[in-house]
Amino acid sequence: MKNFLKKQWPLIALALVLLVAGFYLVRSGRETAENGIVRDLMSGEGVKLQDIHYTQDDPDARIKWVLDAREVRFSQDRRTIFFHGFRLSMTPRDRPWFRLNGKEGRYSRDTGDMQLWGDLKGTSGNGYTILTQRMIINEKRGVVRTDQPVRIMGPLFSVDGRGLTADMKTERLKVLSHVTTTIHKGSFVR
To answer: Which end of the chain, N or C, is less packed with Cβ atoms under 10 Å?
Structure first.
């Protein structure tokens, strides 16, 4: 027996090292699943990213948009994107740019709807600002709508009201109810 151990000790030591290493790998894998990215993936929440910069720059699209967000989470099927603390920049081919800041949003790749909410503030390259609490942008149809109070301020006029629909293709905007419009002094040439 002593002779056997003397000849086989390297193999026995190797087996013992592999056994200990295997134990730690299994334990480590369990801790990773409980604490890390594996848990996020297995939880059904999908992938979660922090401080992202996402660009949609399809040459066939009429509009380029960039999303900067503090946090982004993708659904498990990657068809829905949720984002928090965002800034959305849109640059159409033939119109002024538009930027929109807000607290939360959700984008569905299936419907093309981007639902945005929480202290929304939009500014445009032609000097207008829009304030509201909730907005839905349908990227496929080019329609923006809200049923919330809305305020639009610009160099020529200001409009306050409730609800809004806008068609980005025809560049028509309609405030739906309780509308008050203020025309700024000196905005029309005499």
So the answer is: C
